[in-house]
Amino acid sequence: MKKRGRFLTLLMVTTLAAGSLMACGSGSKETGNTQTGSKSGDSIEITNVSYDPTRELYAAYNELFAKHWQEENGQEVSVVQSHGGSGKQALEVANGLQADVVTLALEGDVDAVKNAGLIEDGYVDEFPLDSSPYTSSIVFLVRKDNPKNINDWDDLLRDDVGVITPNPKTSGGARWNYLAAWYYFEKQGQSEDEIKESIKTLYEHVLVLDSGARGATTSFVENGQGDVLLAWENEAFLSLDEHPGEYEIVVPSASILCQPTVAVVDEVVDKRGTREVATEYLNYLYSEEAQRLEAEWYYRPSNEELLKEYQYEGEGNTITELPENHKWIITDIDLTNIDHFGGWTKATEKHFADGGIFDSIYEKK
Amino acid sequence: MEIRNDKGVVKWLLIGICTVFLLVTLVLPLVYVIYTALRDGLGAYFAAVKDQYAVKAILLTIKVVIISVVVNSIFGIFAAWLITRFQFRGKKIISTLIDLPLTISPVIAGLIFVLTFGRQSAIYPFLEKWGIQIIFAVPGVVLATIFVTFPFISREIIPVLTVEGTDEEEAAALMGANGFQIFTQITFPHIKWAFLYGVVLCSARAMGEFGAVSVLSGHLCGRTNTMPLYIELLYQAFDFTGAFALSSILVIMAIIILVLRNIFEYRGKKEMES
Lengths: 365, 274
Hints:
Largest sheet of chain A: 9 strands, mixed
Strand content of chain A: 15-25%
Distance between the termini of chain A: 69 Å
Number of strands of chain A: 14
CATH class of the largest domain in chain A: Alpha Beta
Order of helices and strands of chain A: HEEHEHEHHEEHHEHEHEEEHHHEHEEHH
Largest sheet of chain B: none
Oligomer: heterodimer
Helix content of chain B: over 70%
Number of domains of chain A: 2
CATH architecture of the largest domain in chain A: 3-Layer(aba) Sandwich
Number of strands of chain B: 0
């Protein structure tokens, strides 16, 4: 008994020692990693911090870009991806998440990173078209045959309709949803107080308020919650793609042109020496190959010719299955944009900041 | 085992409730995990597990578990020794502080570290000067895991040490043994099963930690995504085979740990009795 006791002690001491050695080993390796992190001879690495629904797009784009960069510079490039609610992602970058580029859901979130001092003023003009290489819109995703007969925004105010949309506090997509609804009610000739009342009713019908767009999609599609999902166009088409015959897309009469914004994070690229590759990463998003890829993943390309090429040829405002020829872009829709709301700084302050309109209507529930 | 009362309606009612409860909350979900993981065949299962990001997530998880266990073992033994063998002011405070992670929500733990080591914090310039990246990198993930698991080992050891008392140690000291000898020959043999039990609990908790890690990881795919985070990612990417295949690996790891736990518990009891 006593002998075995000693043996066990010995065993344990050795395990502990081995363990601590391992810990030290991996620890030092880790610091090594973060030190070099970026540039070393013929391979380079950058990090793209993006919003929720773009994961598939960027997984595909990263391959395309790697090929392009290899051809141009003979250097291997790998891109680390990070996805989540746009507002949350912006906050993490502001808190020290090392992103070489941010590709967020809206300018307001990139502004948050800028205000933390990581991005220089005037980033919006650094890339063409206000730094938004692709755009999107907000549509409704409903269950097959549209059992609740949801056709436009005012149907969402009916008591029998359960709505799924993410939280505008953390999700960029949710902010676009909110503003699109606002625009519709405004177009109906409602006064501001009436619009607030309508929006309040709409959010009373929200069953699950997820923190990001992808979480909301999962709630609606996988967990079967609600009757209608207010979704990014690309999320809606992707759901149609993943679950053919189970859902339909309803395009409301009015919506908003969503302009996701991209930017190089100056502080990080200067520290890592990755400015060149990061800039090219974003520039190449405007190339024809990349624009085609974006259209294939259901983002509206900024290239006018491609936009026409992918224009939807069917009739009506309901899409029950993916067009075989991939022509999916519905142009027959009244799209407002953020300028209508006086830009993101103003819109954020009025609607989404602490104590803004969203707070007042959601708290008074 | 000693209590036998076959006539008891209460007994059967309780057994019934327990079985139904366990079936609904544990067995069914686990069966569903395995079923979904294998739904597309073994080929798809292994392809999902061998995916480069999955492998990286598994390796990272193992690494994080090992580091947390080692750190917490050292800390746990010292803390238990200190609390049971010395009298000093503020002992209650230290004892309470050790338990804090049990009551603090992991998400808050994560946020505390963001505030401490994040870009807005006062010490960030120093960290940056030395090129040390803590949060949104592997060290942050490790730190979060250590934080949420650190009471586990000391909490297992402290009761044993308290029960044992100091008689044997005092005797050894009188006979001229030094501190190290006392620890390795007297104290450690007494606590070793409790210690191993603590290690097991600590590993189990470290493997599955989600909240604090989620806040600190930055979700860098292939870098800081541990298994639980990567499973969420796969689930949200509509990749159910992948998500549940990886979940099944976590389940298998948990079962191994459960078996170890029972062995240690059994051995510990036996030794106590002898």
